[in-house]
Amino acid sequence: MLSAQVKEHQARQASKRIIQEQKRKEAIAAANDLTQALVDHLNVGVAQAYLNQKKLDAEAKLLHQGAINFAKQTQQWLCLVENFSSALKEIGDVENWARSIENDMKIITDTLENAYKITQEKPTTSQ
Predict the structure, then answer these.
(1) CA–CA separation, 79 vs 77, rounded Å?
(2) Which family does the record claim for this protein (predicted)?
(3) What's the alpha-carbon Rg for the chain, to the nearest Å?
């Protein structure tokens, strides 16, 4: 009778251990599932942030390249404007030189005309 109770007790203990082991396995599986779900949820945000960062990096590179191209174009425009300004100065210098020559020629022409008039008037007054 005592040995029957011990065997019955051991059988109940064994069945409880089996049930506990099953519940432990279920709890571990549930914890793993929960952990995986949390990680997946966090990974979605991280993945989105990573994609956004990649897009931002690409945009920044494009912007940087655009700024470099703009600086080159600006430098070319500055050179063109400087050359144009120099050409205008030269034209202004030539124009000033031409005006100077024209004024000198007018003075010479006026002087010659006055000299001619004077020489024409002398013979008429001496007669």
Answers:
(1) 5
(2) Belongs to the BLOC1S1 family.
(3) 54
